[in-house]
Amino acid sequence: MAEDKHYNPTYLHHKKKGYGDTLRELVFGMEDGMVSTMGAITGIAVGSGDHFIVVLSGFVIIAVESISMGVGSYLSNKSEDEMEKRILAEEQEEILNTPKEEQEELVELLVTDGWSRALSVRMADEAVQKPALMLREMAYRELHIIPHKEGHPIKNGLVMFGSYIAGGIVPLVPYLVFANPVQTIPISVGVTVLGLFILGVYTTRFSLRTWWKGGLEMLVLASLAGVVGYLVGHYAQVFFGI
């Protein structure tokens, strides 16, 4: 059998698509875990200088925020799935009750997409005779919804939960190793910066960006929160004496 020279197994659309369902949650969870935890414990370390308070606060932040983010991801994904199901049900009702109007609308949508009017009319004539096909066409062309797309709210919630924990642990680990919280700040920040850069590099596996651009983008944008946390802690100590 001749080898298919047009088939490239490294292309994303030739691979299993499981990663695509959770990539957003994975990146969002790890980035937010690293940045939020680093910003918070850096501010606490500057403001209090107490090792126990910093470590305890870090664990509390990670525990509370990971649960909150996981639940939030689950609820938002579930709400989106339910909204799309309602929209599709309403579209299906319109197809059954006003088929002529929907047929005319499909013709215009096909023409807008670049099909000739003659062919668009023939395609709409056939689609209107097949309600399931008509619904798929209207969902795709008018509603921009993929019918029968399987949502994974529980899976996404769990990925968000676990990713936030994994990211949150990164800036906290140095405080578990070293006793002086103020002196540990640059180590924690450095480890987090490295973690953010690596995460940014990882995301380029699924895009056309170069690895260093992805790493720098994640690093620069995400590090802003750490700077804010440091400044809040510093000025709280200056103005309020805490």
Automatic annotation (TrEMBL):
The chain crosses the membrane at residues 26-46, 52-76, 158-178, 184-204, 216-236. It is a multi-pass membrane protein. It holds the Pfam family VIT1. GO terms for cellular component: endomembrane system. GO terms for biological process: intracellular manganese ion homeostasis. GO terms for molecular function: manganese ion transmembrane transporter activity. Its main location: membrane. It is found in: Endomembrane system. The keyword Membrane applies. The keyword Transmembrane applies. Keywords: Membrane, Transmembrane, Transmembrane helix. This is Iron transporter. It comes from Candidatus Magasanikbacteria bacterium CG11_big_fil_rev_8_21_14_0_20_43_7.
